[in-house]
Protein: Lipoprotein
Amino acid sequence: MNESFVRRARKLSVAGAGAILVGLTMSACSSAPVPAPTPTPSAAPTATASTATAAAPAPTAAAPAADQAGRPVAPHQPVPVLGRPWGPYQHGYGTVRPGLIDNGGDASAVISHVHWRTWGGETATGSGTASFVPDGEPLAAAVPKTATIEAWDLGTCDGKLMYRAVGWFFPGEQLDKHEHIDLCTGEYVKS
Structure:
């Protein structure tokens, strides 16, 4: 066998092993999911009287961008926030996918443990725990109950993409989108 060919083949196998180790190291240090490699046909080195060739490694694609929960997001696409604070002691406004929303008033204006099923479209939906006050009862009679939450009116406010309305409701109820607080201005809207 040609001595030059054997040396080149050894160099190619060492270089290939190095590329695999670098790839494994990079994927182990990344929090983004890495797609499984696709098998590519490999060409065995061939020798002629004067040259030896090997198949070039296939280019790899970068992993898609993802949010903290691993859901894919489009690169360079602005992600909306939930309005902006308009009063003191508020929580969740001005953030993406808030887990707690508190209007800064009484307990009936708080929803916690929010898990968003959708975010970024015309309407964002999720569920959480809010204080349910039975009809005719005082606020002191409120009990924690699972509620559905919706954010809508996607648009901009002072150049920032946001949901400009939010509301939540309990099983057996419907959300009235005609009465809400404008999350850009803080004004009460009744249409």
Remarks:
- The radius of gyration is 28 Å.
- The longest helix spans residues 3-29.
